[in-house]
Amino acid sequence: MAFGQPSGPPATGKQLQELMQLLNAAGHTDFRDARGPMGFTQRQAGGKFTRDEADAFIAQLQEWAEIAEAADAVPEPATPTPVKPKVTAAEKSLKNVPTEVLAAELQKRGWVVLEP
User: Fold this and answer.
1) How far apart are the C-alpha atoms of 8 and 51, rounded to whole Å?
2) Which one has a higher pLDDT value, 23 or 87?
3) Where are the alpha helices (DSSP H) in 13-75?
4) Which of 14, 54, 55, 67 is the most exposed place for a label (fewest CB within 10 A)?
5) What local confidence, expressed as pLDDT, does residue 3 receive?
6) CA-to-CA distance for 35 and 43, rounded, in angstroms?
7) In 3-state terms, what secondary structure has residue 94?
8) Nearest to 61 by CA among 29, 34, 33
């Protein structure tokens, strides 16, 4: 199997149609619009699903719809917690340098420096 290729038979037209209807009911305009919230891959955002993938997403959307009906609200998919970027040694050392010195160095390198 080649890299990035689906591992199974393609989804049927009926599955894709049902998936699109459920996505529209959840407030998405198309597969690409639903890519982030649904966790679609680039291939899936282009409308290419295997039968198993389509079944899994259909079941997930139907479950969300049932929860929404019971709670009378639109469920939000879980969002990943943001990862704090690691502070590098260079950034740590620059925190000790006075602002005027940093501004002067940037100006020597051709940058325009303005106070906030």
Assistant:
1) 7
2) 23
3) 13-25, 35-38, 42-45, 51-71
4) 14
5) 65
6) 10
7) helix
8) 34
* Domain residue spans of the chain: 13-71
Cβ neighbors of 75 (< 8 A, separation 6 or more) are 64, 67, 68
- Beta-carbon contacts of residue 11 (< 8 Å; ≥ 6 apart): 19, 49, 50, 51, 53, 54
Write down the mean pLDDT value for the chain: 84
Share above pLDDT 70 across residues of the chain, in percent, rounded to a whole number: 86
Angle at 20 between CA 18 and CA 26, to 5 degrees: 105
Q: Supply 92's token pair.
A: 């740590």
Within 8 A by CB and 6+ apart from 18, the residues are 58
SS3 113: coil
Tens digit of each residue's pLDDT (9 = 90 or more) over 59-108: 999 998 888 777 765 556 666 777 777 888 888 888 888 989 989 988 99
**What ranges in 72-97 are assigned the alpha helix state H?**
89-94
Query: Nearest to residue 26, comparing CAs of 69, 71, 65?
Result: 65
Provide the pLDDT for residue 54: 92
